[in-house]
Design brief:
Layout (H helix, E strand, L loop, with lengths): L21 H8 L6 E5 L2 E9 L3 H18 L4 E5 L2 E6 L9 H11 L3
Antiparallel strand pairs: 1-2, 2-4, 3-4
């Protein structure tokens, strides 16, 4: 029995940690269907846009994501706007995607 992504813990990784392979990417992204893998400035990232009824709710969600990031010691880009929060996960140390990013994306989904 495999453990779902949101029940896993991020592992510390350094600049020599391997990026996810194409096969791993396909498997992991299927577990977080609302996220999009995209390349920005040559770096593969996971991104999702969350919609809210107003700025206050968007800000509350932003703070929850920040708490998650601190707990996992893995930090995304977060853009908060009126009624919308965009969260982007990638591993800065390796300039791409690591399993940690998928774990944090899945955990982000549970914050709704």
């Amino acid at each position: 029995m495999t453990t779902t992504l949101e029940n896993q813990k991020c592992i510390a990784c350094s600049g020599d940690a391997p990026k996810v392979s194409e096969q791993e990417l396909a498997e992991l992204i299927s577990q977080i269907p609302d996220w999009v893998a995209q390349v920005r400035d040559g770096v593969m990232m996971l991104e999702r846009e969350f919609k809210f009824k107003n700025f206050k709710l968007a800000l509350e969600f932003t703070n929850k994501v920040a708490e998650l990031a601190e707990a996992e010691f893995h930090h995304p880009a977060i853009t908060t706007e009126w009624g919308k929060v965009t969260v982007t996960w990638w591993t800065h140390a390796i300039g791409g995607l690591h399993q940690n990013d998928f774990i944090c994306a899945a955990k982000t989904d549970t914050l709704l």
